Amino acid sequence: MAMTQTQLADAVAEKAGLSRADAKKAITALEDVVVEQIGQAEKVKIGGIVQIEARMRPATQERQGRNPATGEEITISAKPASVAVKARPLAKAKNAAPSVSALQNR
Predict the structure, then answer these.
(1) Count of other CB atoms within 10 angstroms of residue 16
(2) Does residue 88 sit within a domain?
(3) pTM for the complete prediction?
(4) Maximum Cα interatomic distance, the chain, rounded to a whole number of Å
């Protein structure tokens, strides 16, 4: 089950010795800073847990292709440029992940 924002605030408050309200303010401030930095196309690294960045996907031209089922030639339409936000887990997150067998036995 996913951890809710309230559960996260409670856990942060307990670990850091803060009140729940202070922990919620800190989480909200972190969220605001991350969103602001992503909006400026900056990478954001949160501790050793995750790195978040915005990546631009370039536009593609219209091109010829083949339908794999029929072999018929088709025209693949052009696509506009787009932006995707990618999150990459870092060492702490990878090391904390459970084993495959533990996840299968849930």
Answers:
(1) 11
(2) yes
(3) 0.70
(4) 66
Quick count: other Cβ atoms within 10 Å of Cβ 64? 8
Q: Is residue 104 part of a domain?
A: no
Distance, CA of 100 to CA of 81 (rounded, Å): 37
Q: Count up the domains in the chain and report the number.
A: 1
- 84 assigned to some structural domain: yes
Task: List all residues 6 or more positions away from 90 whose beta carbon is below 8 Å from its beta carbon.
Answer: 45, 47, 48, 49, 50, 51
**Predicted local distance difference test score (pLDDT) of residue 103:** 74
Structural domain includes residue 12:
yes
For tokens 């989480």, name the residue. 27
* Structure tokens given for 62: 């219209």
